[in-house]
Design brief:
This protein is α+β, with helices and mostly antiparallel strands and 690 residues long. It has 4 domains: 141 residues, Serine Threonine Protein Phosphatase 5, Tetratricopeptide repeat (Alpha Horseshoe); 92 residues, Immunoglobulin-like (Sandwich); 154 residues, Nucleoside Triphosphate Pyrophosphohydrolase, CATH 3.90.79; 129 residues, no CATH class. The protein has 22 helices and 24 strands. The strands form 5 sheets. Strands 9, 10, 11, 12, 13, 14 and 15 form a 7-stranded mixed sheet that branches. Strand 9 and strand 10 form a beta hairpin.
Length: 690
């Protein structure tokens, strides 16, 4: 019966090509494929193929060879080759979970030969066990059949080799005999591996944490035993009873890249017990209870029923802007600029119109005044004019002492690049007051419109956090934008940044460079800042350090150079949620006069958040160069947890109230090490929103 099943399976899998007949044949196949591992099959010259059918035939043939090579690599226990193929091919391209003619999958061979490294590599790539092994008995019978049929084939070939005279056919039979002897030994090793295996031990550790008011996060680790067969999946169970009767739910995890699971749809305020079991080819092992033994879904907001701070704010701002627009409906440019066409025709006509407007072309050199430049970059290339100049337009030939306030206003305008024409018209109407501030801001809007028109681009990107000034009286405001598609533009072109820096002829001395020269010298730093300012934190709970310093016209905040849109920080843990119980403990700690809560050592050791905070505070103080003894008067901000979406949250560590903000001229003995900068507070707020 088993032999008939094997024949049926071979017919069902007829589309699978036979593997190499011997280990040497497998190695030859590796060499033949080695040059193809670095390219995709679509890199063939498709123009030389006749018809779609031939392309598809070539694709299937190529993938079949890759699949056969993977089987042979697993059988030969060639970990490097397995990892190489998993890196260059997707599971679908490798047919990773389609059984071969023997009813086996690559993962079956790896676990039954007890090759843990290859098995783990396959599991992380999404490999599964063969669906034919529905029970221990069926697996044992299947292996016995493979061994018996391989032994029978070896005996048949050996008799033919002994009885036949030496000739070409005999030489071929000898090759087949060697191949089947090798396969016979492989099947016997697999059978022995299965017979000597035992069920896995319990997971070495199971950690339970509160993920939200309706979910729990379960994180677990592999069993410690090394003699058991490879674990291929885990089972998470949960119940309201410590005896797990009745069982409320279970989940089987067979994607083992990350050993964690989130239990969703739970009832807030209810205690849940959790346990995890491991599985291998011999079955399920004993369960491991979680630590702590149970957890209660909750969120810190439940402590006092507080609503999220930002709930409805975006909608309220949109509504407010709509009201402002309604009031200014008499602005004749409001509707046209709202539906401004983005076609090539518009961009060309706009650019041509500006070419004949006095002073509307891009500038080559700077005279004393205030200017706007737009930096568009893609990889190592930058957009320049046809004269190899960075696009620059003039805002004004003079500037007021309130430049910083106007500059910060411009950074907010950068959130509304599409509304510049409308804003310009509204500011024009308001100029009847002859306000110097309004006149300067109108000139800024005019320069922005001019830049947009000359480039044919509305979105000028993000404003760099500080203007560039030189001793000749020039101030240069810089915007930065990364272009991720292959766009072409009428009035500008792409050139390598290195070429622009090399070919530029400076008209200033090295001691007193102009603002444009300073821009070119520091352009790589500015592009790096722009890229880093758009990076996001990985999910988790963080401890942030709030440190401000004030100047005459602004307040600045300390941030790390590597992530300038976030406060100085260290990660506390991967779970961003603060539970109600944890928040109650923090409130209790904040209400005490002593900096450290006066609770028994045993209680503290059982509080995971206390231990996590201790580690995080030490790490953060080292990061910002503050001796730990000086941090004894620091305090945690206990009014709220700062939530940035659903995946990132912050607790704030504050210096004493007198030291939160350093005044001008005030000495700060503990300056952070290199790798930090201070941003204007308004720029930092915009960076957080982005």
């Amino acid at each position: 019966k088993m032999t008939q099943q094997m024949r049926d399976l071979q017919l069902a899998q007829a589309r699978k090509p036979p593997g190499p007949s011997s280990p040497n044949a497998a190695k030859r196949l590796y060499r033949n494929l080695s040059g193809k591992f670095r390219v995709n099959y679509t890199s063939f010259d498709e123009g030389s193929l006749v018809g779609r059918g031939e392309k598809e035939k070539l694709r299937k043939s190529y993938l079949f060879q890759s699949n056969a090579a993977l089987f042979e690599a697993v059988e030969l226990q060639d970990l490097d080759r397995v990892q190489e193929m998993l890196k260059h091919y997707s599971p679908e391209e490798l047919d990773l979970n389609t059984p071969n003619s023997e009813g086996l999958l690559p993962l079956d061979i790896a676990i039954m030969t007890n090759n843990a490294p290859i098995a783990r590599a396959l599991l992380q790539a999404g490999a599964k066990e063969s669906p034919h092994f529905v029970s221990l008995e069926s697996r044992s019978l299947h292996l016995s059949t493979l061994v018996r049929e391989a032994e029978q084939r070896v005996n048949e070939l050996m008799a033919q080799v002994v009885n036949e005279a030496p000739n070409a056919d005999c030489s071929e039979k000898e090759k087949q005999l060697k191949a089947w002897e090798w396969r016979f030994r492989l099947y016997k090793r697999m059978k022995a591996g299965f017979e000597h295996a035992r069920v896995p031990d319990a997971p070495s550790s199971v950690h339970l944490s509160v993920a939200s008011s309706s979910s729990l996060q379960v994180t677990f680790w592999e069993p410690l035993s090394i003699n058991s067969a490879v674990v291929t999946k885990y089972k998470v169970e949960w119940s309201c009873s410590p005896t797990f009767s009745p069982l409320l739910g279970e989940a089987v995890i067979d994607k083992l890249k990350d050993l964690h699971f989130t239990i969703q749809g739970l009832v807030s305020g209810t205690a849940y017990h959790v346990r995890v079991s491991a599985y291998n080819m011999k079955g399920w092992g004993p369960p491991q209870a979680s630590m702590p033994p149970f957890a209660i879904p909750s969120n810190w907001r439940e402590y006092d029923g507080r609503a999220p701070r930002q709930r409805g704010q975006a909608e309220a701002l949109d509504h407010l802007l709509g009201q402002v627009k309604t009031v200014h409906q008499h602005c004749i440019c409001h509707e046209p600029c709202k539906n401004q066409p983005q076609s090539r025709k518009h961009s060309v006509s706009k650019s041509l119109k500006h070419l004949f407007h006095p002073g509307s072309k891009f500038l080559k050199t700077l005279k004393r005044g205030l200017y706007l430049t737009a930096i568009f970059y893609k990889d190592d290339n930058i957009l320049v004019t046809h004269e190899d100049q960075i696009p620059v337009v003039e805002i004004d030939d003079t500037y007021s002492c309130l430049l910083m306030q106007d500059f910060l206003w411009l950074t907010k305008v950068s959130c509304m690049w599409d509304e510049i024409l409308w804003l310009r018209q509204c500011v024009t109407v308001s100029q009847s007051s002859c306000s110097c501030i309004l006149q300067m801001r109108f000139k800024m809007l005019l320069a922005i419109s001019q830049m947009q028109g000359l480039l044919g681009i509305q979105d000028l990107g993000q404003v760099f956090f500080e203007p560039i000034k030189d001793k000749q009286g020039n101030i240069l405001i810089v915007t930065l934008k990364e272009v991720k598609t292959n766009q072409t533009f009428e009035s500008v072109r792409w050139v390598p940044i290195s070429k622009l820096q090399t070919n530029r002829k400076s008209v200033s001395s090295p001691e007193e460079p102009t603002a444009l020269d300073t821009l070119l010298i520091s352009i790589q730093d500015k592009l790096a800042y722009h890229q880093r300012s758009s990076h996001a934190l990985s999910p988790g709970l963080y401890l942030g350090y709030l440190k401000l310093c004030s100047a005459v016209d602004q307040i600045r905040v300390l941030v790390p150079e590597q992530l300038p849109n976030i406060l100085c920080h260290v990660k506390i843990r991967s779970n961003p949620n603060i539970s109600r119980e944890e928040w109650e403990w923090l409130q209790k700690m904040a209400s005490m006069e002593e900096p450290v809560p006066a609770e028994p050592e045993t209680d503290r050791s059982q509080n995971p958040l206390f231990q996590e905070l201790q580690v995080a505070i030490k790490e953060l103080m080292t990061l910002v160069n503050i001796p730990l003894q000086e941090a004894k008067d620091f305090r945690l901000y206990s009014q709220e947890v700062l939530d940035f979406g659903d995946q990132v949250s912050f607790l704030l560590l504050l210096p004493p109230s007198d030291d939160v903000c350093t005044a001008p001229g005030q000495n700060n003995p503990y300056t952070p090490r290199s790798g930090f900068l201070t941003l204007p507070l308004q720029i930092f707020e915009l960076g957080e929103e982005r």
